[in-house]
Amino acid sequence: MNTPVWLIESGVFGSDADSLVKELRRQKIPCGSVAHRELVKDGPPIPPGECVIVYGTYPFVRHAQLHAGWIPGAWLDPDTFDCTTYAPHFGAFLLNARHEILRGVDAIRDADRLFAAFGPNDEVFARPTGVHKLFVGRCIFRDDWATALAPTRYDPDTNVLVAEPREIGQEWRLVVVGSEIVSACRYAVNGRKEFEPGCPPDVLGFAGRLLAAVPWRPADVFVLDVCESDGEFRVVEINPFETSGLYLGDLEAIVRQVSRAASEAWARAQPS
């Protein structure tokens, strides 16, 4: 089975990228780095058809997917990772289970109705539904609504999710390969970045029940963000692995399992 090459976008993940490279080298898995502009200007540094995993920003990953011809390259499907697609599957497990999705330009126009439905204290939560976010998902006051959603005017097809604000305690990032949770770490407490490796057994139990109850997967490899809210665990969002920070995750398991998934994808793509 072909061993993948990990190609990491330079200048993006800082010391986290250094830790990832160190682990890749420890496992004797080839890796390299390239800037987005170099990938665009000079073309792919590895021939098409090779087993490669790209890791970086959304524009970097998408350019590699569309132009490099690597296998798998990435598991990022923008349509699949749009919460318009995954929200119906995960339903009541979601933090924002009660929500409305509509075009950003319509959300600006329908502000009074949306705040009546989701903003009892003159505040609602809103985020773009897509992977490539035009603005950061956050709670927004009525007076700031039009300004906060203004970027969507330049892309009228951008959808936004609007929901009632929810209190969030701790948040954890889980890396999932197939139906197996291969890594978990805490990344926030009460909205502040606070990193800690691992997670409580109850978080793993919640994620395990979720994966057992929902057979649908956005990809062979993905990231599941889980939080505690009002005494319950909920899914904050689902993200592509290739564009997500790994924080204090288990790099040994991530590198080993994601590399295995890439090798298997490459093998399946070969002529029989």
Tally of helical segments: 9
**Separation, N- and C-terminal Cα atoms:** 14 Å
The biggest beta sheet is recorded as: 5 strands, antiparallel
How many individual β-strands? 13
- Compressed to H and E, one letter per element, the order equals EHEHEHEHEHHEEHEEEEHEEH
**Portion of residues in helices?**
25-40%
The strand line-up of the biggest sheet is: 11-10-9-12-13
* Total separate domains: 3
Tell me, rounded to a whole number, the average pLDDT: 95
What overall form do the CA principal axes indicate?
globular
Radius of gyration: 19 Å
* Secondary-structure content class: alpha+beta
Strand content: 25-35%
Contiguous runs where pLDDT drops below 50 for at least 5 residues = none
In short, what is this structure?
With 272 residues, the chain is an alpha+beta fold.
Overview features:
272 residues; alpha+beta; Dna Ligase, domain 1; D-amino Acid Aminotransferase, Chain A, domain 1; 3 domains
Element layout with pairings:
Blueprint: E1 5-9, H1 15-26, E2 31-34, H2 36-42, E3 51-55, H3 58-67, E4 71-73, H4 83-90, E5 99-103, H5 104-109, H6 111-118, E6 123-128, E7 138-141, H7 145-148, E8 159-163, E9 170-177, E10 180-189, E11 192-197, H8 201-213, E12 221-229, E13 232-240, H9 251-268
Parallel strand pairs: 1-2, 1-3, 3-4
Antiparallel strand pairs: 5-8, 6-7, 6-8, 9-10, 9-12, 10-11, 12-13
